[in-house]
Fold:
Amino acid sequence: VEKIYKLKKRKESKSMICIVSDFKMLNQYIEEVPEVAYDIIKYAKKPTTVIYDRPLHVAENLIADDNTLAIRVIREGFCNALLKKFKKPIVSTSANFSDKPTPKSFKEIDEEILKGVDYVVNLHDKKKAGKPSSIIKLSNNGVVKVIR
Structure:
């Protein structure tokens, strides 16, 4: 996690998200998942990241100052297969330096970013990157806040 912050030149106060493969994995890393979270994730029309209270068993520098953690459930594709192999969450972030534009395709990723990681997977996906995921904060006290 620290290596990602350093590579992106990102302040640790700007938290990143984790991706998990399914609800079972989600429940291993959040003390109490609000019931509404399951429906939000199940019926979302686009990728949706949920911010939860009281994370468990993750690196300290992934936990925000307010003791929350952002998690997105990835139910299909390459990332899901990788998550199932690892049996652990993966930190997810855009492939750019902090405060710089997000690359819209693989060829737009800065060479320094590509050289700074251990391994690069180029899925040869011809389509451009989509919009960022929706972000919803679900507090255990019932407060729901749409961030993006």
